[in-house]
Amino acid sequence: MLSPQHAWCKTPRFARILVLVLTVALTSALDAASVTRSVTSFNEDWRFARYGEMNYGSFLEEPAGLEKAPVDDSNWRELRLPHDWAIEGPFRDDLPNAEGKLPYMGIGWYRKTFTVPESDAGKQVFVEFDGAMSHSKVYLNDQYVGEWPYGYSSFRFDLTPHLKVGKENVLAVRLENKIRMSRWYPGAGIYRKVSLVKTAPVHIAHWGTYVTTPEVSVNSATVRIETTVRNHNKSAHPVELRHEVYEAGLKRVKVAETTTGKGSIAPDSTEVATATLELSKPKRWDVESPNLYLVVTSVLQNGKLVDSYETTFGVRTIKFTAEDGFHLNGRRVQLKGVCLHHDLGPLGAAFHTRAMERQLEIMQEMGANAIRTSHNPPAPELLELCDRMGILVIDEAFDSWAKGKTENSYHTLFEEWHEKDLVALVRRDRNHPSVIMWSTGNEVFELHSDEGKRISQRLTEIVHREDPTRPVTVGSNKSKPIMGDWKDSVDVIGANYNQGVYPIFLEKNPGYAIYGSETSSTTSSRGEYYFPVKEPRNRAQKLRGGARNNQISSYDLWGPGWSITPDEQFALLEKYPNFAGEFVWTGFDYIGEPTPFLAWDQTLDLNFKNEAEAKRAQEANKRLNKGKASSRSSYFGIVDLCGFPKDRYYLYQAHWRPDYPMAHILPHWTWPERIDEITPVYVYTSGDEAELFLNGESLGRRSKKQYEYRLKWNDVKYQPGELKVVAYKGGKPWAEQTMKTAGAPSQLSLSADRSTIKADGDDLSFITVRIEDSEGTMIPQAGDLIQFEITGPGEIVGLGNGDPTNHESFQGDQHSAFNGLCLAIVRTIDGQAGKITIKTRAKGLGESTLSLNSQ
Ligand code: GAL
């Protein structure tokens, strides 16, 4: 027997683990030739058909027997994963605003024919899904192999028992989405990657390594590696494990290794073995220096390598304290976090690593250092990116428990699936140093009842069982009774909004660690400004004051009743440093939940004290919408759905990156109809003072007072020309920005976020189209229709403009701009290198081209 977990030293038959500490760094090539595990992409060559409720609302009966192998799928659509069938549209007026007005409901069938060579006889073959939306049922060659209903969970099935080696096999996947399964746009289809994994019969189990660092100091770190080994054979097998630890990086540098003695695994069983080793002078993982290590675990059978498995990990310490927030590697780190939904704008839910990386880069540039994966397990690549980029993560599991928020939300699965889903999340993600906390829920309805407390305790127990090294949290939006006694069911309290409760909470609950799990919820539309600018004095004004024509003014003063401005939240966190920081709702706009322009019939909003208050809000909202509610994506983002920053971006940057010299002026300065009219000017700067000039004349110098984060010139009378701000810090010039009045629209200007991309069929380039005058100043209200043409080895996979009311398709070859900007997302074609050219055209604006290099 391999030794059971934690008990190896008591097991005489299992030889003591030899700990070899190599302090001298060695470079080593892995013994790759004899590794039998293979992981290959299974994203290519799927066939797809849709049944039940169709895109345009018609109904197509699902034929019986589609799981059977001899189905004629020759006229099914051929596609490559990831695929989101709903992002193809169309936006439909009859579909709920909250879910993005896109047809994600219905049934989707995917079929893939593949051959496994004779040489794979005797291997175990698994299919791994990172996520399939939703209620997946998987069949191989007519046989049911398994199902996983929660669309955000990763899962795998063993195909071996039904696999025909040397012959053709058919894998069939049935998905089904019901309307109102979530409060936002869930996406639809096999929207994350799929892999085929082949191993020897004796191999490291699924998510079978768990690496922790129980002791960390400047001089050394203890690394504990728990390995789960599976023997599928009918006979017992002797097994030896070897762990080699490398500094991860372009060049792997070996820093330690250890070998277990021989153990034996019984037939058809699983054993866990634990090894520890020491790292000398560990390079710690931190937000500023995200150093990573890699353990290569080899399984040896009679000296022969039968499996090799890589686990990335980091050496770092984390601690939440009641008095002084969050500590990383022994020092306080303020959580400057954002909540992110899973969609990637015009790409929908279809996961593209580069699109996620771009979101994270934009957030990091703003100064964010943390993400909350609201409100569900993310794609695994998000964690890999955060590990590499030094971003802290709250990994969240659920938006509801046993009580539903919408008709078909997670409550329909909770009883049967919560443990499996939670275990899948924790086992998949527990080696990532970026993950600092597990969240078992968000604003779950039952939290403040005895039942809720019981469920919360149970979920925390499951998580602690799977990973005792990280705290568990829940995000709660209820202020009374002061966070309730559920607070004992978690390790760290997540407070959604309820800023009024902060001081009371701290006074009444010494000893509890807390952070703002959701903050602000300010709403705005990029580039929209309405006059006069009146700062709201009550909840109704806050909701309605900034809204017009289904858009919201970008003076950053408005939001739903429970919201506060970013500035108010900054002040609170400065006053109460016990709070570990905040997670702003949200970093990016997302599809669905266009509060306040929701159709309020489908979800009783969560942030009201009682039903009467919610009803009043619904009425106010109906008046606001005047019966029309056509918005399909949110206004909460600091950045719009396409990744174009709104003004608020610079308010956060000014506060979160105090050492980065910057100044930002709002609004834009092209108002031909406002000559001599009062047009307030706000400046967001990381400086502490600023002077504003209009056409060279000073409009005064203002300085920030305590708990003030924006500078305001409320009485500026508009004159065309040049508006300039000069910011100062400590009395010295610090940053400048100039805003010019635009002339006549004249040209389209194209720029790419990356002009050399990989010819791997996954890589993306994000191309911004700006409508400008002849001098290069953006026309701030331009909405021209732009035609796109692409030649060379690339395809346009997404178009958008960041307007939450826009119902044009995210796909195709034309899209209108919104307030001067439009976005095209270009994807390469696997194996086809070359020059990709994008040509754009718009009436009166001529033609512009841009080239990319795919290699
Ligand atoms: C919260 C909720 C979020 C989102 C937000 C909008 O109550 O947790 O998912 O709905 O409100 O302000």
TrEMBL record:
<dbReference type="Pfam" id="PF02837">
    <property type="entry name" value="Glyco_hydro_2_N"/>
</dbReference>
<dbReference type="Pfam" id="PF18565">
    <property type="entry name" value="Glyco_hydro2_C5"/>
</dbReference>
<feature type="domain" description="Glycosyl hydrolases family 2 sugar binding">
    <location>
        <begin position="104"/>
        <end position="199"/>
    </location>
</feature>
<dbReference type="InterPro" id="IPR006102">
    <property type="entry name" value="Ig-like_GH2"/>
</dbReference>
<feature type="signal peptide">
    <location>
        <begin position="1"/>
        <end position="32"/>
    </location>
</feature>
<dbReference type="Pfam" id="PF02836">
    <property type="entry name" value="Glyco_hydro_2_C"/>
</dbReference>
<dbReference type="InterPro" id="IPR032311">
    <property type="entry name" value="DUF4982"/>
</dbReference>
<dbReference type="Pfam" id="PF16355">
    <property type="entry name" value="DUF4982"/>
</dbReference>
<dbReference type="InterPro" id="IPR006103">
    <property type="entry name" value="Glyco_hydro_2_cat"/>
</dbReference>
<keyword id="KW-0732">Signal</keyword>
<protein>
    <submittedName>
        <fullName>Beta-galactosidase GalB</fullName>
    </submittedName>
</protein>
<feature type="domain" description="Glycoside hydrolase family 2">
    <location>
        <begin position="748"/>
        <end position="850"/>
    </location>
</feature>
<dbReference type="InterPro" id="IPR013783">
    <property type="entry name" value="Ig-like_fold"/>
</dbReference>
<keyword id="KW-0326">Glycosidase</keyword>
<dbReference type="InterPro" id="IPR023232">
    <property type="entry name" value="Glyco_hydro_2_AS"/>
</dbReference>
<dbReference type="InterPro" id="IPR017853">
    <property type="entry name" value="GH"/>
</dbReference>
<dbReference type="Pfam" id="PF00703">
    <property type="entry name" value="Glyco_hydro_2"/>
</dbReference>
<dbReference type="InterPro" id="IPR051913">
    <property type="entry name" value="GH2_Domain-Containing"/>
</dbReference>
<comment type="similarity">
    <text>Belongs to the glycosyl hydrolase 2 family.</text>
</comment>
<dbReference type="InterPro" id="IPR036156">
    <property type="entry name" value="Beta-gal/glucu_dom_sf"/>
</dbReference>
<dbReference type="InterPro" id="IPR008979">
    <property type="entry name" value="Galactose-bd-like_sf"/>
</dbReference>
<dbReference type="InterPro" id="IPR040605">
    <property type="entry name" value="Glyco_hydro2_dom5"/>
</dbReference>
<dbReference type="InterPro" id="IPR048229">
    <property type="entry name" value="GalB-like"/>
</dbReference>
<dbReference type="InterPro" id="IPR006101">
    <property type="entry name" value="Glyco_hydro_2"/>
</dbReference>
<feature type="domain" description="Glycoside hydrolase family 2 immunoglobulin-like beta-sandwich">
    <location>
        <begin position="203"/>
        <end position="316"/>
    </location>
</feature>
<feature type="domain" description="DUF4982">
    <location>
        <begin position="677"/>
        <end position="735"/>
    </location>
</feature>
<keyword id="KW-0378">Hydrolase</keyword>
<dbReference type="InterPro" id="IPR006104">
    <property type="entry name" value="Glyco_hydro_2_N"/>
</dbReference>
<feature type="domain" description="Glycoside hydrolase family 2 catalytic">
    <location>
        <begin position="324"/>
        <end position="503"/>
    </location>
</feature>
